[in-house]
Specification:
single chain, mainly alpha, 2 domains, MFS_dom, D-glucose transmembrane transporter activity
């Protein structure tokens, strides 16, 4: 989870750099490439997953809702910053386009100090000591055996569940309509311009 977020932040910084340099290069294609890279990035689902997994159970819903709050706040700040009086002017718009790299840079610098997700450590890596250490680092000292037991129950449940590959998922008739809906919704979100806003 953490490595994916770090790689994703590098992608966002590269996209921001490309868009920020588009005026100097006099290339609108660089804006298209940068926006495409921003659209391809997995920021939102990765953040929700990581934040949800590192939060204690009683704060998990609150933590996931704060992610959405900050996502919306970022859009509002982008709209305000895009006014002609601020960064929407003829000379400053490249800074506005490159501003998406600032949160990515902050996260790229701070994220290495956070531990990997405890459920990931226990369920995928099988590292019980690493899981306990990550829980202590995130939630402080105390009794966290109940949370570890919950993760173990989830792991036992996952053993009985068949995980499909992407190709198997596409071929499975039972999931076809759900897959069509997800693809259509995701494609239309990308086409509606919400990322540009």
């Amino acid at each position: 989870r953490k490595k994916c977020l770090l790689c994703n932040n590098v992608l966002m910084i590269v996209a921001a750099t490309i868009m920020g340099c588009s005026k100097i290069s006099q290339s609108f294609e660089m804006i298209l490439i940068g926006r495409f890279m921003c659209g391809v990035s997995l920021c939102v689902p990765l953040h929700h997953q990581y934040v949800g997994e590192i939060s204690p159970r009683k704060l998990r819903g609150f933590a996931n809702s704060t992610s959405s709050f900050f996502w919306t706040l970022g859009k509002a700040i982008g709209q305000i910053s895009g006014q002609r009086e601020l960064l929407g002017s003829r000379s400053l718009w490249p800074m506005l386009m490159a501003s998406c790299g600032l949160p990515a840079l902050v996260q790229l610098v701070t994220l290495p100090f956070f531990p990997e997700s405890p459920p990931y450590l226990l369920m995928q890596k099988g590292d019980q000591e690493g899981c306990k250490k990550a829980i202590r680092q995130l939630w402080g000292e105390g009794q966290h055996q109940a949370e570890i037991d919950d993760i173990m129950k989830e792991k036992a449940t996952m053993k009985n569940t068949k995980i499909l590959s992407v190709l198997e998922l596409v071929r499975e008739p039972a999931f076809r309509w759900q897959l069509y809906m997800i693809v259509i919704l995701t494609a239309t979100i990308q086409l509606c311009g919400i990322n540009a806003v």
